[in-house]
């Protein structure tokens, strides 16, 4: 992920692989980067098959 990634585009990208059940996009809460994305997110899909494709 880049610092310029946004939630909408990431969810749209992930939905191509299956239904996104839960999506947590994390932001810096304090400091000089406050309000900017941390550069990672957590995703849960509806089925194990879709989820298994992303575990490396």
Automatic annotation (TrEMBL):
List residues of the RRM domain. Answer: 10-50
Q: Which Pfam families did the record assign?
A: RRM_1
Q: Which InterPro entries match?
A: Nucleotide-bd_a/b_plait_sf (IPR012677), RBD_domain_sf (IPR035979), RRM_dom (IPR000504)
One Gene Ontology molecular-function label: RNA binding
* Name of the protein this chain belongs to: Probable RNA-binding protein 18
**Species name:** Anoplopoma fimbria (Sablefish)
